[in-house]
Fold this protein.
Amino acid sequence: MKNLLLLPFVFIFFAFATKAQTYFPPLIGNTWETTDPADLGWCEDSIQKMYNWLENSDSKAFIVLKNGKIVLEKYFGTFTADSFHVWNSAGKTLTAYAVGIAQYENLLNINDKSSDYLGAGWTSLTTSQEDSITIKHQLSMTTGLDDGVADIYCTDASCLVYKAPAGTRWAYHNGPYTLLDSVLKVATGMPLNTWIQQKIGSKIGMQGLYVSVGYNKIFVSKPRSMARFGLLLSQNGYWNGTAVLPDPTYLSEMTNSSQSLNLSYGYLTWLNGKSSFMLPQTQFVFSGSLCPNAPADMYAAEGKNGQIINVVPSQNIVLIRMGASLGNNLVSTTYNDTIWQYMNRLECDLSTKQPEISTWEVAPNPFTNEISISNLSGLETIHITDEWGRAVAFKQFGNRIALSEPKKGIYFLTLSTHQYRKTYKLIH
């Protein structure tokens, strides 16, 4: 009788641990069940338009999962399902997940001082300044270390320079993030790749590893392994009933605003649907949602040149894209937003009713005197800031823009319509 009384609680536990009707591919082999796009009401011609755009923007792989099953899977050029590709900064979210597992196993606490694991003098700060930095600050990009140094990837103490008190300034700084690898190694007693494979890869069938590129460590895998991690992210810490990170508190913190400075950033994870956001290499706070055309509850792992994992809990959708040719953007929020413009037009009864996707060409870049913008039709606002987020005055002559007092440096040009916004990084 006692065991019978426990049954309802067991049922409730699994209902929360693993979302209903989600398919999980086998851990070994290439079997992965599919769903016909037509069953979702998606039109073939709209899918093909999206594929054409993806190919023209130098995509390598594109996968969409619905309830765990593959709905769309496309490879471009010579790239195949068995090709390997870098995740770039999309691997940050994988690191955040690995830190969460270490905390769940009581090997660390994210409120611990980073110096407890990295040792005294891991920065060039004073002892009191350094001791105020915690693992949580590394996860939330709020260490206060200066991201304006010559090499933001450098992890040497001489490169880790004081800018502001920890927790008071958000800045996308790769060096402090990379040192989470060393934090994990000290806490777990394992190299990073061993920890990832033992605690995550082996449990979800994901294969891949971090490789060293200078100071940086970049995760490399096949596209379906990236999709497997996206599916794990969507499932509240469980994979087909197997616990991977059964810590709802940490997962909630990871996928919600981790601080009040950049509402669109959790623990090394980008968040949609917030009232404002910040971007790498600028202190400007942009109003509105990170990806206005994407579902509000979407969260994402994003890396340079358009390495993307999107998770949409309300729709049980996971979307991944691997590719190149997106300039030097450290994250790809505008590219990601354009993907969702195409995704929103897949339904057959919507594809012919919605306005054309807004696209602009901005040239030259780098620029000397003027910037030209193609296709001004529907454009409502033009906004330019410098790399510190300060508004920059400019004059417009038709489709040409000239800065009033141009100086050498980096500028951000934001073009907006009623439903669409895109920001360009310009170099003078």
Notes: The chain has two domains: 22-357, 362-427. Residues 1-20 have pLDDT under 50 and may be disordered. Residues 112 and 211 are 27 Å apart (CA to CA).
